[in-house]
Amino acid sequence: MRFRVRRLALQQPDISIDSGQKQQMSSPAAPLQSDTLGSRLTSRGDLTSFFMELTAEIGADSYMLVAIVHDQDRNDARIVSSNWIFDAIELIGKRLIAGLAQGPLTAAPGIRPTPLVAAQAPDADGLVSGEEARLLDVLGHAEIYSLRLNVGRQRLFALFSAAAAGRIDQPALMKAQLKCCYALSHIPQLIAAAAMQDPLSDRERECLFWVSEGKTTDEVAVILGVSSNTVNSYITHAIQKFAASNRAMAIATAIRSGII
Amino acid sequence: MKHTEIKDAAEALFNEQRSPFGAFSLGSETHHAVTIPDAVRRCRWISVDINASAFGLFFVSPSPERARLVPCFDSDYPSVAVASKFISGANGEEIVRHSRISTEPRWWTDDGVAAMADMFGNLAWTGQMAPLTPGSSGIAFPVHADRGQCGLVVFLGSEITLPQDALYEIHARCFSLFAAVARMRPGDVGRMRSISKRELECLKLTANGNTSEEIARLLKLSVHTANQYLTQSTQKLNAVNRNQAVAKALRLGLIE
């Protein structure tokens, strides 16, 4: 099995897997460091320090923030931020990461998450093979939690992992999930650019929405009060932006990435 | 409203299904089928926990043009509270725009109770907005469900107590409540069970940008049969054409 590796979208990860040993700020009264860092989040650098702090707070060693990009029949993982060692990502491969992020173990906010424990793999879901599980274990990801993050309409995934199973504090993790959603809400443009999920203009999105509701070009033209040629050109642009081959595919791509 | 009774019942349930998260088991509760009255009850428990006097759950309509809040239920269920009418009207525009790009809760105070402004003002991660209903205070939580549905859970009251630590838990419970409500909303799912595996395959290939000719070649069918499958699935989904059928199938989770 060959898979494409997109080096382009990858941020150079910080080589510091020791973050888990950082002193925990556990006093309940004082605001946690991650709250202070997260609510002032404006840049990519802030994003890294916020996630490092949060990773330490929940007792994890590594984090990875992933956007899933739909490409024909396959899903591709685009890593927005991570402190995994670069080689680990290369070795494990984006396909497995995309599988983890979209797998049955991924928990939406408010749902109690179940970890992937490398020692217990290969699991019934066939998420990872025995060899992949050993690799994860050796690379310090004995236990991996996959969380869905909602940032407005955008959807991202966070993987938190620890070198030993059972080290991650579940209640803290569920709170951290909401904090991640909040923090990422501060940088919508950055997230959208990283995930490239919504390349459409408002007008293009509107047209595509009405087409997805079964309206013809002429009907959309009446609804929006513009000419049919204009509507067609908006839709053509949308199709081009998604590199789709026709309207149906453009609609499918837009719905899958939560744009319409 | 007999708050004490409700609170007692809620507490009994919490103790029964207490999770490490400090709320009743968030993971397990979404598995059993919920009806709207069930959801109203669950929302009432959340409302009791933060000492709010009213609540409401809204869907953000997916149309990019007419962005508005569609009331699903509120604390006056089965009728509709006056507050909901304000929120689904012009007052809701700001929060709809907000919920498209952000998941942060927004609060407002307009009832002259200074304590409310103090309490909300000290909450990290939240922000102020224009009042959703005049002469009240409240907080709105943007929520999202599995298939991209977007919504808003609103709590009103002049005595809301929401410590920082409880904020995450309350928002998490709003998320799981909305997920349950969103799952039961497509009322016409029942009529769609007759859609066949072959028809779904054709729809999936259409969603991936294949033409009828390509589908016919891939599935080793005649073009006529492929078209017939697509026409049938379009009818079964109650759609007017292929594009809408693909959109509906994706939104209902029939195809990935």
Architecture overview:
The complex is a heterodimer of chains A (260) and B (256). In chain A, α1 packs antiparallel against α2 (44-57), α2 packs antiparallel against α6 (170-185) and α8 (202-212) packs across α11 (247-256). Chain A contains 11 helices and 5 strands; from the N terminus they run ααββααβαββαααααα. Helices cover 43% and strands 15% of the residues of chain A. By secondary structure, chain A is α+β, with helices and mostly antiparallel strands. Chain A has 2 domains: 17-195, Transcription factor LuxR-like, autoinducer-binding domain (Beta-Lactamase), CATH 3.30.450; 202-256, Orthogonal Bundle (Arc Repressor Mutant, subunit A), CATH 1.10.10. The model of chain A is unreliable at 1-29 (pLDDT under 50). With 256 residues, chain B is of the alpha+beta class. Chain B folds into 2 domains: 3-184, Transcription factor LuxR-like, autoinducer-binding domain (Beta-Lactamase, 2-Layer Sandwich); 190-251, Winged helix-like DNA-binding domain superfamily/Winged helix DNA-binding domain (Arc Repressor Mutant, subunit A, Orthogonal Bundle). Chain B has a 6-stranded mixed β-sheet with strand order 2-1-6-5-3-4, sandwiched between helices. In chain B, α9 (212-219) crosses α10 and α10 (223-236) crosses α11. The longest helix of chain B is centred in the C-terminal third of the chain and has 21 residues, at 164-184. The model of chain B is unreliable at 16-33 (pLDDT under 50).
Please report the distance between the alpha carbons of the first and last residues of chain A: 33 Å
Question: What is the N-to-C order of secondary-structure elements of chain B (H for helix, E for strand)?
Answer: HHHEEHHEHEEEHHHHH
Strand order of the largest sheet of chain A: 2-1-5-4-3
- What name does CATH use for the topology of the largest domain in chain B? Beta-Lactamase
Average pLDDT score of chain A = 79
CATH class of the largest domain in chain A: Alpha Beta
**How is the biggest beta sheet of chain A arranged?**
5 strands, antiparallel
Number of beta-strand segments of chain B:
6
Q: Ranges of chain B with pLDDT <50 over ≥5 residues? A: 16-33
Strand-pairing-aware structural class of chain A: alpha+beta
* Residue share in β-strands of chain A: 15-25%
The oligomerization state is: heterodimer
